[in-house]
Specification:
single chain, alpha+beta, eight-stranded mixed beta sheet, 20 strands, globular
Length: 427
């Protein structure tokens, strides 16, 4: 938790923090400022109350910038810039869960752009995270052009898809197991969802530990837009042949024609395909949609008619920022042996330097070195390499990763992964 502090930036702005653990007008003004920044409507008492609950549960660090607004003309008294971070874990491969500094609710009011407020808030947060011993920061973004200048790089990709589930939907084989309809309001359903989510997080490189609002969002117990229970939310689970739950979805039916997936967790391909078969055999519905589809899913190759699956958009998933290259790379699960010396540029001077990375027989050694770099790049490129979700050669051909053909090949061999990283949701 951040204690309440203030720091004068100039005669026009004051930087400070907000206590998320105690309900207050200041806390509600911070939340209202976030809504304004993302062009949302004014928030209801129910929305404010839920946000207080979530912020406190995650032990959030809330930062803000206050403007010395003129009196007597009705000027808003809420913050002109906001910033939130909190601590969770990231699966870095091999089942290792590494502490990570998550960032969201970053806003600067349109009237205050180009004043250096975001840079000041970001620098404070990342510096403090590194000082705490955190090696990695992460965020999901609304505007993709902002965060590379702060050292963040795209680390996972996701697709928005539409699946034709009209008459004739068929998979090449009938998946095994059983589908069970769940009551989304049941405590047992919540416990099942949490258990499955924990298992997915432990097993999948690139997964982020869930935050406080995710359960409410997934099961529809609080719909942010309406500020109430989503009574249209439904849930179903797949049980394997031993009777264990290994996949779960939540969904709504929209306009009596669209099956809209909200949450889809599966621990294996057979369970995933079984739930797609369940989706595909809904009479009267024409299509299914999902905005967090894993590009590595086997679904396309399981369809008897592959053209039923359309990718309507491809988007970045999570962005990473390396704060401590030695600690971050030491925590990374490598699938292949190899060695490379990487030179990292970092304009924020948090992670710059040259580092030797060696993986042999299941052991990883990372050290700062005075050796000549074999490859060199900006710190955001290292973030894109980190989980293995971005192709090394593509980064090289794009002019982002520099080195000889032999050095790029060695880097590719070291960082490539057998299973691409995936994460379930934004945060």
């Amino acid at each position: 938790m951040l204690v309440a502090t203030v720091e004068t930036v100039s005669d026009d702005y004051t930087l400070g923090t907000v206590d998320p653990t105690t309900p207050s007008d200041e806390l509600d003004l911070w939340t209202r400022a976030v809504a304004l920044g993302f062009l949302e409507s004014e928030l209801s008492d129910e929305q404010l109350g839920k946000q207080r609950e979530w912020l406190a549960a995650d032990n959030s660090r809330l930062r803000q910038a206050l403007s010395h607004a003129p009196e007597g003309i009705g000027a808003m008294r809420r913050p002109v810039a906001t910033f939130r971070s909190w601590d969770k874990t990231l699966n870095t491969g091999g089942g290792h869960l590494e502490p990570v500094n998550l960032i969201t609710d970053v806003t600067v009011r349109q009237t205050e752009r180009r004043r250096g407020l975001l840079r000041r808030l970001m620098t404070q947060d990342l510096t403090e995270a590194k000082d705490r011993g955190t090696a990695i920061a992460s965020l999901t973004v609304t505007e993709a052009s902002i965060y590379s200048r702060f050292g963040f790089g795209v680390a996972t990709l996701r697709q928005q898809v539409e699946l034709d589930i009209s008459h004739g939907f068929t998979l090449w084989h009938q998946p095994t197991g059983t589908i069970v309809q769940l009551d989304p309001t049941s405590p047992e359903t919540l416990a099942t969802w949490q258990r499955l989510d924990d298992q997915f997080h432990q097993a999948n490189r690139g997964s982020h530990q869930r935050s406080a609002w995710h359960a409410d969002s997934a099961l529809g117990s609080f719909d942010w837009d309406s500020g109430a229970v989503d009574r249209k939310r439904r849930a179903a689970a797949h049980l394997d042949e031993s009777g264990q739950v290994d996949a779960m979805i939540t969904y709504t039916v929209k306009d009596e024609s669209e099956f809209r997936v909200h949450e889809f967790i599966s621990l294996n391909a057979e369970a995933e395909l079984a739930l797609w078969a369940f989706i595909g055999h809904h009479d009267l519905l024409k299509k299914a949609t999902w905005n967090a589809f894993n590009p590595a899913s086997p679904l396309r190759w399981a369809l008897a008619d592959q053209r039923r699956l359309s990718v309507t958009a491809e988007k970045d998933g999570i962005w990473l920022r390396i704060l401590d290259p030695v600690a971050a790379l030491q925590a990374r699960g490598f699938d292949h042996d190899g060695e490379v010396v990487i030179g990292i540029r970092d304009t924020m001077e948090l992670a710059q330097g040259t580092f030797r990375v060696r993986h042999r027989a299941g052991q990883t050694e990372v050290e700062a070195t005075d050796a000549e770099p074999q490859v060199h790049c900006d710190v955001d490129v290292l973030a894109s390499l980190y989980l293995g979700g971005v192709n090394t050669w593509a980064l090289h051909h794009a002019g982002r990763l520099h080195g000889s053909t032999e050095a790029i090949a060695a880097t590719h061999d070291l960082f490539r992964v057998a299973v691409p990283p995936s994460n379930l949701r934004y945060f």
